[in-house]
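Suppose a colleague, Dr. K., hands you the sequence of a protein chain of 77 amino acids and asks what its three-dimensional shape might be. Before reaching for any lab equipment, you can write down a predicted structure in token form. Begin with the sequence itself:
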Amino acid sequence: MVDNLEGKIKEILEKVLDMPIDPSTAAQGVTPNWDELRHLEIIMEIEDRLGVMFNHEESAQLTSFKAILEKLQKELK
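The predicted structure, expressed as tokens, is then:
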């Protein structure tokens, strides 16, 4: 499942945010359209597509491409 994880995350973010993103800088508060509502949509889409579940505290910390990638790499080992 970890194969091409970066591509899957990028695809999810671009779909939810409805815009191309740069994985090196994509983050809530930095990337246009990544507001609180879209953040929830991103988390739900990741959970649905990748078969993982995050609690509220975890979700609140997943505010950048890098944070999402690192968390999923741990979860999907």
